[in-house]
């Protein structure tokens, strides 16, 4: 956490949700909009401090976005208990409603279980909010029924996956993406947590955001 990171509390469906907000430098001008980032599985050590989640936040900030990451219910100081993705999607929607003004651009991102939750949030927001960009890393398609990405969002969506991911095999994500004709960016030689390749992850995401 850097000096510019703010600690925030939001009201979620199961109680308070703790969050962290990172802002682009003042010299960059006003943020483009708000990016809300979802963390990996709460029962396997996933938190908003996860290295991939932090890297996503840094990429958004570098590209001029305000980045909000938060702990799902039952994680850290967030109240409630694990709800198999259903309640966590409601947590994400509560964070979006309270942190991202309706008139400003909205970006959503998630890692692993967080990508599954993010896709649920996209499904709930369809027709209600415009989503400017979507970033999904290590999408947990092997373990959960991940909703498809709406076709109109495909040009603004980055799906990143490691070739050697043994937590979520690449084949499962291809099976999820194939019926949608949704492109996937595969990073050769990389496993689920992008160990040793976080700078590359940041570079690819930043390039997508600036495209």
Explain the overall architecture.
The protein has a single domain, classed as Rossmann fold (3-Layer(aba) Sandwich), CATH 3.40.50.1820. The chain has an 8-stranded mixed beta sheet with strand order 1-2-4-3-5-6-7-8, sandwiched between helices. By secondary structure, it is α/β, with parallel strands linked by helices. The radius of gyration is 16 Å and the shape is globular. Helix 1 runs parallel beside helix 5 and helix 2 packs across helix 3.
CATH topology: Rossmann fold
What's the arrangement of strands in the largest beta sheet? Answer: 1-2-4-3-5-6-7-8
* Distance, first to last CA: 27 Å
Q: Can you count the helices?
A: 5
**Cα Rg:** 16 Å
Anisotropy-based shape = globular
User: Briefly, what CATH class?
Assistant: Alpha Beta
How many separate domains?
1
Question: Portion of residues in helices?
Answer: 25-40%
Query: How many extended strands?
Result: 8
The CATH architecture name reads 3-Layer(aba) Sandwich
> Topology as H/E string?
EEEHEHEHEEHEH
CATH superfamily: Alpha/Beta hydrolase fold, catalytic domain
Unreliable residue runs: none
Structural class: alpha/beta
Major beta-sheet overview = 8 strands, mixed
The chain-level mean pLDDT equals: 96
């Amino acid at each position: 956490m850097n000096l510019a990171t703010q600690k925030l509390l939001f009201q979620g469906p199961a109680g308070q949700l703790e969050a962290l907000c990172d802002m682009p430098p003042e010299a960059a001008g006003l943020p483009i909009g708000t990016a809300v980032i979802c963390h990996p599985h709460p029962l396997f050590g996933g938190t908003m401090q996860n290295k991939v989640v932090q890297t996503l936040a840094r990429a958004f900030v570098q590209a001029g976005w305000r980045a909000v990451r938060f702990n799902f219910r039952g994680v850290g100081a967030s109240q409630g208990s694990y709800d198999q993705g259903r309640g966590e999607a409601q947590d994400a929607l509560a964070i979006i409603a309270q942190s991202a003004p309706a008139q400003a651009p909205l970006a959503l991102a998630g890692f692993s279980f967080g990508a599954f939750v993010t896709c649920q949030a996209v499904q709930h927001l369809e027709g209600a909010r415009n989503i400017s960009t979507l970033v999904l890393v290590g999408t947990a398609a092997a373990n959960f029924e991940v909703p498809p990405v709406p076709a109109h969002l495909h040009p603004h969506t980055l799906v990143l996956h490691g070739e050697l991911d043994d937590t979520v095999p690449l084949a499962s994500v291809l099976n999820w993406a194939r019926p949608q004709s949704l492109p996937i960016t595969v990073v050769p030689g990389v496993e689920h947590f992008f160990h040793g390749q976080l700078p590359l992850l940041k570079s690819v995401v930043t390039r997508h955001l600036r495209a």
